[in-house]
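Structure ticket #2291
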Amino acid sequence: MGPLPRTLELFYDVLSPYSWLGFEVLCRYKNIWNINLQLRPSLIAGIMKDSGNQPPALLPRKAQYLINDIRLLGQHVQVPMQFPKDFFSVILEKGSLSAMRFLTAVNMEHPEMLEKVSRELWMRVWSRDEDITEPQSILAAAEKAGMSTEQAQGLLEKIVTPKVKNKLKENTEAACKYGERSGWARCLQL
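Resolution: structure written out below.
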């Protein structure tokens, strides 16, 4: 019998390409690294606001670095990364609020589906340049990930409820409380 697994929380937003890369590496190696991966949907916009940070794409030098870095990291970890054609509209105007509320509802009611649905939403925005803000797009992602139409529709209806909204806010605030010293992922010895 080996050591007990360590718990690692990943606070993520499908709008973040770096979150996707980290997500895939952690999912791929969680058994080898003996970690209990806890996925925590959160809003990157809330984290940016809380930290006083700006999206890297808004700063010219960081934007250029981001484009090259994401392309190279995607190749390295074998994640099919392709920037959306209308990058600024996707990131700054459309955002990910509905998608992240949906993932929060998935986590609350069908946590066994969270990894697959998250991955499919990332694929839509960062590989296939598909919208993740429209209800039909979110439903299509959930169904492609293996959810039934009824399950997905039921969860989509819950994204406007206080329970789901509050849980997403709670997750985002928890990520902010970890602060700069730990980033978005945090290991805790159990």
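Closing remark: The longest strand covers residues 6-12.
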